[in-house]
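Protocol step 4 of 5: obtain the predicted structure for the target chain.
Materials: sequence only (see below). No template structures provided, no constraints applied. The aim of this step is simply to have a reference model before the mutagenesis design in step 5. Sequence pasted as it appears in the construct record:
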Amino acid sequence: MDQRRRAAVSLYRRVLRAHIRCLPEHMRQLGDRYFRDEFIKHVDSNVRDDQWEEFVKQWDAYCGVLLAQKQMQDPTSSHQSNDGTASPSDLVFPDGASPSGELDQSSAEALSDDQKARLIRLEKEALSFGKSAFPSGPEHSK
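Step 4 output (C-alpha cells):
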C-alpha cells in the first residue's frame, strides 16, 4: 500500500473515531455522511499532492477541535488515543481554529469560487434548520 493510501485509511479511521467519541448520534450520522462524501471526492479523483495535504491537515484540525471540545465539556474524560491523534489535554486549537468553527481570513481567501458558493449554501441551510428546530429562537429552548 503506498504512503498516500495508508494516510487516507488512517485519516478515515481518525475522523470516524472522533465522531464516535465526541458527537451525539444524530450529529455523528450527519458528520459521517459528510466526511465520507468529501473523502471519496478527494481519494477517487485527481487531487494534487498539495490539495491532499491541505485536506488531511484540515480534517486533522477538525478532529483536534472535536476532541478538545469534548475535553472542555468533560474534563474528567480520558481520550488517550492509539490512532496518532493528540490527547485533548495536550491540545491547543490548531492553526488558530476556535470552537466556533469560524474560518480564519487566510483559509477563507484560499477557497475556490465553488467552495465559497457551497459554504454560503451550507450556512443558509444551517440557519434555516436552526429556525425550524428552535422556532422561538435558541435562547428560549434552554
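Step 4 remarks: The mean pLDDT is 76. The longest helix spans residues 49-73.
Proceed to step 5.
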